[in-house]
Structure formats: C-alpha cells, structure tokens
Amino acid sequence: MRRFVIGSARNLIHRSHQNSQFQRPLLSSSYRLLSSSPSADPSSSSSSTMAPPVALNNINPKVLECEYAVRGEIVTLAQKLQEEITAKPESHPFEEILYCNIGNPHSLGQQPITFFREVLALCDHPAILDKSETQGLFSADSIERAWHILDQIPGRATGAYSHSQGVKGLRDAIAAGIEARDGFAADPNDIFLTDGASPAVHMMMQLLIRSEKDGILCPIPQYPLYSASIALHGGSLVPYYLDEATGWGLEVSELKKQLETARSKGITVRALVVINPGNPTGQLLAEENQKAIVEFCKQEGLVLLADEVYQENVYVPEKKFHSFKKVSRSMGYGEKDISLVSFQSVSKGYHGECGKRGGYMEVTGFGADVREQIYKVASVNLCSNISGQILASLVMSPPKVGDESYESYSAERDGILSSLARRAKTLEDAFNKLEGVTCNKAEGAMYLFPRIDLPEKAIKATEAAKKAPDAYYCQRLLTATGIVFVPGSGFGQVPGTWHFRCTILPQEEKIPAVVSRLTDFHKSFMDEFRG
Amino acid sequence: MRRFVIGSARNLIHRSHQNSQFQRPLLSSSYRLLSSSPSADPSSSSSSTMAPPVALNNINPKVLECEYAVRGEIVTLAQKLQEEITAKPESHPFEEILYCNIGNPHSLGQQPITFFREVLALCDHPAILDKSETQGLFSADSIERAWHILDQIPGRATGAYSHSQGVKGLRDAIAAGIEARDGFAADPNDIFLTDGASPAVHMMMQLLIRSEKDGILCPIPQYPLYSASIALHGGSLVPYYLDEATGWGLEVSELKKQLETARSKGITVRALVVINPGNPTGQLLAEENQKAIVEFCKQEGLVLLADEVYQENVYVPEKKFHSFKKVSRSMGYGEKDISLVSFQSVSKGYHGECGKRGGYMEVTGFGADVREQIYKVASVNLCSNISGQILASLVMSPPKVGDESYESYSAERDGILSSLARRAKTLEDAFNKLEGVTCNKAEGAMYLFPRIDLPEKAIKATEAAKKAPDAYYCQRLLTATGIVFVPGSGFGQVPGTWHFRCTILPQEEKIPAVVSRLTDFHKSFMDEFRG
C-alpha cells in the first residue's frame, strides 16, 4: 500500500512497486507515517474541536502566495459597480461597465464562427443529423464534418471519456493542421488536448518544479497565469525583462544575464517561457530572434515553453507568426535536440471561444519515460471536455476553398481580424495622444500595454491611498468611466515604471466612446495632480 | 515584484503587498533568489548542455509517486489488444475488448438523455432557436429551456468565460435543485462549477495540504483519484478500512483508531473523504451512520469531503441516498459547526455524460477569507466549460411533470436505472457462483468489487510473474476473454486479500456473454492452479 504515501521515487522507477507492495501490511509500509516526527500544529490534537478546521494560517501557503490580477481587486470592484448600476441606473456617471481587463471577446459582443457552432451543435445532438429539417438549418459541410468527427469517436459517443490525450482522430486533424502551418511533420501522439491552455501550463509546471530551488524564466511583463502556476507549484519565477524601448524586444543577452544570476543563487532553471505574440505586450518575435532563443535553450538545457495561443492574432502585414517548432526544425533540430512544448487554445485567435475551454499542447523532445509521466498526470483527470476537443480540431482544420461554408467562414474570420487591427490602431493612437502616456504598436494578440508617467503629486496621493500608482489610476478610471483596465503591476514592469493592460476587444462602434471617456478622464486626472 | 517568487504569506494576509511592493527594485525583493544556497544539481550549471533537460531523475517526485490504476497498465494492454484485433480480427479468442474498468457508460453504448442534448445543441448554436425548422427538430420545452439558460448568461454568450465559479443563473438552478433534494437552504455562492468533479477534489487538496505532515483520511478501498491527488499535492493518505464482512461498512471506531494512529505519528489530519454511494464498493451509508460521521468530523475538527457523484445511482428500494449536507443540517449543524464540501458530477448518475466534463462542489462552513482563496485558485483557470456548466444545471433541474419532455425524459432515466439494477444483480450472482469468489451487493454506484481467494499455487505463479495476484488474474482474464477488470490493488485492500473492480455498464444484452466468458475463464484458471 506504499502508493498511499509518497514513497521513494527510485522504487517506482525500478518498477519493483507492485511486486514488493503486496507483501507488506498496509500501515507498516506507510513509512511516511512511521517516520514523521510529532507536529506542533494544534489542529493535530482533538483540542482543536472548537476552532474552525481551516483558516488562512493553516492553508497551503502556496495558495496564499498565488495571485491573478486579470480577475483581481479591480474586477471585483467592477462587478460591484455593475450590480449598483443594474439596481439603480443613475447611480454612476456611466451606463455600463466596459470590461477591457480580459481577453474574452464574446463577452463584449463578438459573434461565434457559424461553421464551428453548427458542427458543435450537431455533435451534441447527433439524433438530428439525418432529419430532413436539419438540411434547412445547417450547412452541408457542417453536417458532413459532424459525421466525420463522430466517426472518429468510438461508438460516436461524445458523452464518453476519451483517451486521456484526447480523441485520436481529432489529434490527427490537429497534427495535420500543425504540418500545414509549419511545413514540418507533427505527431498526433505528441498532442495533449486540455480544457483551455491553462491546465496544460499547470501540467508542465507540475512536472518540472520540485521545489523553490527550481526556476522558470518568464518574461516581464508576463501573463500572470505563469506567476500564479509557478507559485502554486512552489517554484521560483526567474524574471527576464522585455525591452519597452525596442517595442518589447526579447534580448538573448538579457536571458543569459538572468539565467546566470539565478544560477549563482543556487536556482536550477528548468525552462524558458516565451509568449509569442506577446501578452500583455503584443509584440511579434522575428524569426532570427526565435532562432537565437532556440539556440539558447539548447545550449543551456532548458525546456522551451512556447505560449502561442495568439498565433492567429497578427495585425501587421509586414510580420508573420512562426511557431517555435517550425523555427527549431528549420534549424535542423529534431526530437533529440530540443525539448519544446507549444500551447494553443480555442479561446483566442479570431474565434475567441473562451467558454468552450478547448486547447492543446504539442510536447516534443521528451523521452518516452517522461512522456509516460505526463500521460499519467493527464489520465488522473480522465480527459478534457469533448466539445472543446472538437473545437480545437476545427480551429486547426477550418473549412477549405470549395467547401460550402468557406465563404461565410472566411468572411467572418477576416471581418473579426481586420476590425481588431483597426481597433488596436485607434486605441494605440488615442493612448499616444494622452499626456505622459506612450504606447507601443500592437503587432498581435489582443492587448495594449501603455506606459504612463504620473506626476509626483499623483504618486504621493497613491502612497496615501496605500495603492500602487497604476492600481490607483485604474481604480479612478473605473469609478469615473466604467472602463476596466488591469494595472501593470499585475503583469510585472520595470520598478518605478507604470503601465496598464487594455484589451482591444470592445466592439468597434464603442471604441470612440471608450476613447473620449478615457481622454476626458485622463485630462482631469492630470489636471488634478499636475504640480 | 515580490509576487514573482513565493514570499511571506503574512504580507499577503495583511494586504500590504501592493503598497510595499512598488517601492522595491525587482530583483532585490526576490529574496527567494537571494536567500537560496548553491544547488548541487548538475543541470544548474551549463555543463548540462548535452544531457536531456528533463529525465525521470529530475522531474517532480510527486508526479512519479502518483498512480491511477483505472487507466493503468491493464488498460494499456487492453488498448494494445484492441489494435491487434482491429488489424487482425482472428488474432485473439475474442472479437472485442469489453471495458469494465471505468465508469464510462456512453463508451459501452448507453444513449444520452434526449432533453439534455437538445438543450446543449441549442445553446451551442442559438442562431437556429427562432427558425421554424427547429420546432420540428426539438421539443418545445428544450427550446424554452435554452432561451431561459441563454438569458442567464451575460450577452447570451456561451463562448465567453463566465464568472470563475460558473454562470450565476446556472448556480441558482443548481442551488434550487439541492434545496429540492435536501429540504434545506442552498446558496448559489457556495457552488463552484468545475470540469467534472476531479478538478474540484484537486482544488480542495491543494488548499488543505501544506506538506507530507498533512494527512487526509481516505477509505480503503478508495477511488484512486484521492490517492493520486494527495500524492500530487505532497500530502499523506491516512487509510481507514471499510469492513467487507458488513457489506463494506464504515465504522466510526475505525476512523478514530486511524486518526489517533496518524496523530501519534505527527500527522495533522485535515479532512475525511467519504464516498457515498461507495466506489469501488457500491455500499450506501445509513443515515444514522452518516450522523455519526458528521459528529466525528465536528468533534475532531476535520473537513468532510463528501464524494456524492453517485447520488442518483441507487438500486435497492429499501435504501435512500441522503446528502451529508442534509444530514448535518438535520442535526442542527449549520455554517459555523461543520466544514463540508459535497462533490457532484454530470459523468455519473443515469445520464453518465463523462465527456462533457461538468460538475460542481458545494462549499459550506468555511470563512469568507478562506472562500476568497478558493475563488482565487478557481479564477486562475478562468472558468469551467460552459456546456458542462449548463449540463450540471440540467441534471439538478430536469424536466418536471407537465413539461413536454417529462415523459420521454423519465422513461429514459428509469430505463437506464432499472437496467443498471438488473445488470448489477446478474453480475453479483455470477461472481458469487465462482469458486473462491464472494461479492457484496451493489446498492449503488456503478461497480462490483468481488473478493477472490486464490490457490497457493496461483500466488506462487504471480510472484514468478512479478505481479500482484489480483493484477495477474486480471491480466490473464483480459488476454483470455477481452474483459477488462481493474485489480483491487489499484484501490487498496486489506493486505493478503485480493479483489477486482468490475463496472456494471456493459449493455444488458451483452451481460450473458460476459458471465459465460468470465465463468469459463475462472474455471480453467482455478483448474490450472488448484493444488
């Protein structure tokens, strides 16, 4: 019964587990119990009867440590204001809360891609597939695709747990999509379908982090999922700074410097996180830059964790997204040369299907024994949701020229992407017009991350308010205009600099209002604090 | 930038975080980096360039420790045989693999509940809701319910992230369903919707377990999610034995004994896991027994983690499921008296919608500050999938008498449940007819857990095969008949006793074949090893 306490990993590696285990009585083999020394914790004696069993001082400190600003304090305040407005419309100087805090396109009115939803609906209720009315309601290729997908699923059972990595046929479609994107082979057995990309990131952190002595190189600014996941798994975030002056450039010299600093402090750096296109910074890495990053990971023996969930969100014609898999393969590096994990999600792109919780990671360059461990962890949660799995396969194999839905699909896709590009430009220009604000170009992703230089008097006021200046600015903006930005401190920034993250997702017709409300607020804020 | 390394929890509690943090330069405040002593790990020096960065000897040992037998070795073998049969139908003495290893009803041919799928399809593709053809394809109340659900979702956006606990309107429906079930108040703010029940269990383990000194009381036999989750979170499983002689009875005296044993060894026991109806044991707890368990948790200051995912799977008219929430409230215990978490899933019950990954936990008796921490952890993963959320609300508020779908719904539900009861009885009788096999009544859930007394010669043979006897038996059964059982060692059993878990899920018309294949195999197995 050794499995019931953490035993020696060696035993497991040598597979002597089952063999040795059944010869031992359960409790005497639970040596963790035997070897433990008495605990000082009062709740370990029955004298704790009257105290509540769970309190902040006795929960997992890693949970306390974890932070996630995207849904933090500012959003809680926004929800409170929302309720007040619903109860009493005139209670605030604005009619609605504009959530620019999170990349959640459908919550701001973006419509789903029709073809995707047709296929999902038909897979949810296959009983209607051969009804005549269905022909009138659904496109021919959505019906065809639904049949094809159902044929990939054993027993056509969309209500069954799938293989723990996801339905094999859907992984085949995703691998084919990756090959079409990169021009290099992809193996369906490398794909792990997950409920959005976040659980995939957690799985890798769980695999790599043994203690606070294990470090993960993360960009600053970063998407706070990474800091949260590293905190929850008890590791150390090793920050590397993106260079705002060069459009949030990623310098390998900075990676080297931070890696050495961390190592000199006894940290074993296990992996490098790169977010491309950048979140919250929106920059798109150049291929040469990516090659240098791959070389760096190979030389230093780091796993490259490539967050590529915004791969479809590119707004500058002169630049193109290149996956790290494509880049490393084009350098002649294969399975044996580089350990690379690429994260993809159905929540982003032009589709923005956040609520479906679909995503995957492509895991390459790991030994079969380690892959087996990743599979085991995936199997504990059985599988990701099948609708999300189906949607992930659709995103990687959308309608093609000649399909009935191709025209409507590409019109919907291009309409969304071109509108996002216009919104990004309008907001970028608006920010750059504000006193003391500078904003880099959003080449990709869904965000702007403007920098704001606040007057000394404002800084003083924020100290009195016991708030970071950026948090203070965002709170004032919210209560004055109903617009929700996230303070830069939630993502990380060079000490003494202040930023905020703003999504480009409000519907296009609302952008002028956002701009004017923001501009008016900013002017009065600066007037208030100008020396 | 303190948030980027695990800092002092005190700072977070006192909320001085934002305030203090922006005055410090990033690296100098990363005291985890500063305070760490040099590491001996070779991969912390760039001399590791040539070694693969990730190997079994440098991954998180908690991952190595974790085991999940339900999808373990035996299933891998089954998948291999499946492929061989597909490639060469005559390659084995059976035509198909019969997966009795996992509670996955739809994978064995169980059909979904029509009403649930109608609503899901309409919520996936609301564009067809007001089309005339839709009237002909969908029941009137499914259309009405879809409209109602969409109206609960801001912007009717099923493609948007929801509140991190789940859509408020859906939590309202679930709370109403709990009230109707228990006759006691339920608060939608206590509901956390999750992607199946497993992530909810992980969240609670993550919250409660600080180190291997923290223990969780778990039944033996248990559903291996618990041992896996405790291992992944670095805690200690404190086993308590169910009494096979009394139909897998749960004795509070045994709980007390194991609690004291653990405490005497310095383990702080945080929580008690109770699975009711039992998995793998299928017993249904009597209300008096539940009261004693509640009293025990209250007296000992333990969180009661109630796995109630099989609450609809009850096959004995003389017994009834009572939730621990109802039992504790009926004892007069409220929020302040007992910390109770109830887990529910859409994967089980009569619906068995495993692939939808819907579920929730109802969290009661925790302070607001701790609840805030649970919310924070939920928010890091944004939200559970919306289809799963919708299905969870449907399961807790199915069609009512008078609704157009009520008749078909109740016919489908009762047909499945009565068939499961018949299958359980047939298999139970068959097991009890086998030489050396005794099998308790399946009062609920989806499993039988027969005990097998193996001849001495068989035990010897298994030692030679370096397998536990139960694992050896299951492997022989699989290769001879294509039937997949899970060895009892995957769930835990009294040392020296051997069991296996068999689901009652093969379609009814297949049960006779299962019985005869099993009976023939067992006879020849016993003949082979009889002294």
Task: Provide structural commentary.
Chains A, B: Keywords: Aminotransferase, Pyridoxal phosphate, Transferase. Chains A, B: Pathway: Photosynthesis; C4 acid pathway. Chains A, B: Belongs to the class-I pyridoxal-phosphate-dependent aminotransferase family. Alanine aminotransferase subfamily. Chains A, B: Pfam families: Aminotran_1_2. By secondary structure, chain A is α/β, with parallel strands linked by helices. Chain A is about 45% helix and about 10% strand. Chain A contains 21 helices and 14 strands. Chain A has helices at about 10-15, 15-20, 25-30, 30-35, 60-65, 75-85, 115-125, 130-135, 140-150, 170-180, 195-210, 225-230, 250-265, 285-300, 325-330, 370-380, 385-395, 405-435, 455-465, 470-480, 510-530; strands at about 100, 190-195, 215-220, 235-240, 270-275, 305, 340-345, 360-365, 435-440, 445-450, 450, 485, 485, 500-505. Chain A has a seven-stranded mixed sheet, with helices on both faces. In chain A, strand 6, helix 15 (about 325-330) and strand 7 form a beta-alpha-beta unit. In chain A, helix 11 packs across helix 12 (about 225-230). The radius of gyration of chain A is 25 Å and the shape is globular. The N and C termini of chain A lie far apart (about 70 Å). The interface between A and B is large, with 163 and 165 residues.
SSE blueprint and pairings:
Two copies of one chain form a homodimer.
Chain A: H1 9-13, H2 17-21, H3 26-29, H4 31-35, H5 61-65, H6 73-87, E1 98-99, H7 114-124, H8 132-137, H9 140-152, H10 168-182, E2 191-194, H11 197-208, E3 214-220, H12 225-232, E4 236-241, H13 252-264, E5 268-275, H14 287-300, E6 303-307, H15 324-330, E7 340-345, E8 359-364, H16 368-380, H17 386-396, H18 406-433, E9 437-438, E10 447-448, E11 451-452, H19 456-464, H20 469-481, E12 483-484, E13 486-487, E14 500-503, H21 511-529
Pathway (chains A, B): Photosynthesis; C4 acid pathway
Cofactor (chains A, B): pyridoxal 5'-phosphate
Domain Aminotransferase class I/classII large (chains A, B): 156-517
